[in-house]
Amino acid sequence: MQWTEGAEQRSARWYAQNGTPPPRRVVPADSRMGVAAAYRHVCEGTALLWRGDYQSARRLLTSLGRRAEGRGRSAPQAGAQAGSPGEAFHLQRREQARRTRILGLLLIPYENGWTVALRGAPEVSEACTHAYGPPAQGPGAGSLRELLGLVGAYEWHRKGVEIPALGPGGRIHPHYGVFSPVRGEYVDLVAEAPLPASAATAFDLGTGTGVLAAVLARRGVRRVVATDLDPRAVACARDNAGRLGLSERIDVQEADLYPQGRADLVVCNPPWLPARPRTALDRAVYDPESRMLRGFLDGAADHLLPGGEAWLVLSDLGERLGLRGRTELVDLIAAAGLRVLGRLDTAPRHPRATDRSDPLHEARSGEVTSLWRLGVEAPSGR
Q1: Residue 300: how many CA atoms within 13 Å on its side-chain side?
Q2: What sign does the dihedral 107-108-109-114 (CA atoms) show?
Q3: Keywords of this protein's UniProt record, alphabetized (predicted)?
Q4: What is the DSSP secondary-structure string of 160-183?
Q5: Are residues 145 and 206 in the same domain?
Q6: Between the N and C ends of the chain, which has fewer C-beta atoms within 10 Å?
Q7: Of 353, 351, 329, which is closest to residue 340 (Cα–Cα)?
């Protein structure tokens, strides 16, 4: 990142976990710049490299957030103006992207490793190392909003998330950039579904934190192969297996969906919405063109042992938003040579399901998360 300060040309290493490129225009700023001027700068795409104290930067970020919220259409208005739940979904995503872009342009400087070079700044070296890795030499800069997010994520990692399905004291410690299992309904479905008659081996595809692999191992599956394409998730799942004393029963591999071989049970909780992700964390929520869903279904028959089952854990929010056709899922199941053995359903327990100000409230309030028990369709005889 390069900018001019006084008459001097300066540069700093740019840090952005979400893949945002360094801003092209940067101006130094401190408390002498009013909120209105600061908001005008960031709306025009000019980043503010903060030179005041840390608490003033946080106050400015809050003020910018209020302005961004006020300038954008309110949630009820967005929902009212959208002609369909799908349009409301796309309007909401565009508004979220606009807000993220604007608020990401308030920058803080780093020096001497992960030291925030502002008066009154907290110690953030452990959180930054967890997210970015060891610091490079020389000055750096990054978004204050991202820093606050990764500090919060580090607290989740340090304390862990309690998972009742893992038994007393069972906790999962998400790594930065790996989706945290804060919505427990899908975990409970895997904990409650009846296991196949023979369940000595299982595959957990797209394991993330490894929470479902751990639940299966705790339920008595002797060997679980957990896969993920993201190296961060692979490291996270291995870490959690070790913390839970399950390393000998859970083999975590970096792979795109299926590992080698066959299993009695294959479990997949793919991203629930067929849309394009914008950030690394988005990939846990958005599955463009249902790539992972289709790959799981299409490969199940070739990776199940005789009498085995494939468990698909999926919300119907995509159907309710019009992002997936009403019969598309059952059509994909049939096209993959699979049949439905049973289905377990649960209602959402997250706060958004009861938030009437959310433009997607109607869809969210009726959302159902299901565990589909699938078997291989027997070939038809003559």
Answers
A1: 32
A2: negative
A3: Methyltransferase, Transferase
A4: -EE-GGG-TT-EE-PPTTS-----
A5: no
A6: C
A7: 329
Among 111, 138, 156, where does a domain finish? 156
Is pLDDT above 50 for 75?
A: no
Total domains present in the chain: 2
Give residue for tokens 């706060």.
351
Other beta carbons within 10 angstroms of residue 51's beta carbon come to: 19
| Coil, helix or strand at residue 341 | strand
Q: Is 244 exposed, middle or buried (0-12, 13-18, 19+ CB in 10 A)?
A: buried
Confidence of residue 250 (pLDDT cuts 50, 70, 90): very high
Separation CA 47–CA 50 (nearest Å)? 9
Q: In this structure, what CATH number is given to the domain that contains residue 200?
A: 3.40.50.150
**Residue 92 belongs to domain spanning:** 2-156
pLDDT in tens, 4-45: 998 899 999 999 987 889 999 999 999 999 999 999 999 999
How far is C-alpha 331 from the geometric centre of its chain's CA atoms?
Answer: 27
d(CA 22, CA 1) in angstroms, rounded, equals 6
Determine whether 10 is exposed, middle or buried from the number of CB atoms within 10 Å of its CB (0-12, 13-18, 19+). Answer: middle
Q: How far apart are CA 313 and CA 315, in angstroms?
A: 7
> pTM surpassing 0.70?
yes
Please name the amino acid found at residue 187: V
DSSP state of 273: B
207, 23, 55: which is closest to 122 by C-alpha?
A: 55
CA distance 239 to 233: 10
Residue 288 lies in a domain: yes
Name the token pair of 177.
Answer: 């950039």
Tell me how far apart the alpha carbons of residues 44 and 172 are, in angstroms, rounded to a whole number. Answer: 41
Domain boundary residue, one of 111, 129, 156 = 156
Are residues 189 and 232 both part of a single domain?
yes
Residue 72 amino acid letter? G
CA distance 224 to 200: 9
Q: Are 210 and 236 in contact (CB under 8 A)?
A: yes
